[in-house]
């Protein structure tokens, strides 16, 4: 695994100056946090409800996708991937580098989702778009939320945490993964499953979790 990671630009960067790399990461993350917080705040006040109302009529044709791309389905697929990789490891005695990366990505995605749905959503307590369209207030209800609350988006946390690991381990995949994340975000908006601010917050939290998991795996593999 270490040899495989050495073939990636990310691994070479990880082995040069770890303290300087960590300081640069913190600076970039802090700036990204400020930018995403500002974008989410602006969207919450000015964009969320108008965009949700605009797509409300278009949401019904996409309802059938909700079952096929629900969080339970995605979590089940990720669990199946981890189980399959584990069984392959037992049978063959070794695991390819990319299979290990997939397993780490699935684990990071699942862990980030649990934190988001069982802590952050309950903490924020923002009603879902359908509830807001039907008359609920679009506001934070601190510690009065549920797993069905809207902010941050669990789907974006799942997807971006998974993508974040692969982005860290395979730099060549950054562009296509970003395109897929943007496509997923667009579907969440058109389907009225989430507000714009939900998607921004979910993408930031998930990507952070994924990049951190990928960085820890690189550090473990190079030890």
Protein described:
The chain is mainly α and 223 residues long. It has one domain. It has ten helices and no strands. The N terminus is likely disordered.
Strand content: under 5%
Outline the biggest β-sheet: none
Radius of gyration: 19 Å
Shape: globular
Strand-and-helix sequence, N→C?
A: HHHHHHHHHH
Which regions have little confidence, pLDDT < 50, spanning 5+ residues?
1-7, 9-14
Total strand count, please? 0
List the defining traits of the structure above.
223 residues, mainly alpha, 10 helices, disordered N terminus
Quick summary:
This protein is mostly helical and 223 residues long. Helices cover 79% and strands 0% of the residues.
What is the topological layout?
Blueprint (H helix, E strand, L loop, with lengths): L1 H5 L2 H8 L1 H42 L3 H6 L2 H22 L4 H28 L4 H5 L20 H16 L4 H17 L5 H27 L1
Helix pairs in contact: 3-10, 5-6, 6-8, 6-10, 8-9, 8-10
């Amino acid at each position: 695994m270490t040899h495989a990671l050495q073939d990636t630009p990310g691994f070479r960067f990880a082995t040069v100056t770890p303290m300087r790399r960590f300081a640069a990461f913190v600076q970039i993350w802090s700036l990204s946090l400020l930018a995403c917080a500002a974008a989410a705040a602006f969207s919450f006040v000015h964009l969320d409800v108008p965009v949700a109302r605009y797509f409300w009529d278009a949401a019904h044709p996409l309802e059938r996708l909700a079952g096929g791309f629900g969080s339970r389905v995605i979590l089940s697929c990720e669990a199946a991937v981890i189980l399959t990789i584990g069984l392959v490891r037992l049978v063959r005695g070794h695991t390819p580098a990319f299979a290990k990366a997939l397993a780490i990505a699935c684990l990071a995605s699942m862990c980030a989702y649990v934190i988001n749905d069982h802590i952050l959503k309950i903490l924020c307590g923002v009603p879902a778009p359908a509830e807001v369209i039907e008359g609920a207030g679009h506001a934070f209800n601190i510690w009065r939320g549920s797993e069905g609350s809207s902010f941050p988006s669990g789907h974006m946390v799942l997807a971006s945490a998974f993508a974040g690991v692969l982005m860290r381990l395979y730099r060549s995949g950054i562009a296509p993964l970003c395109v897929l994340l943007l496509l997923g975000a667009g579907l969440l908006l058109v389907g009225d499953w989430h507000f714009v601010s939900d998607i921004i917050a979910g993408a930031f939290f998930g990507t952070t979790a994924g990049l951190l998991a990928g960085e820890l795996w690189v550090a473990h593999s190079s030890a």
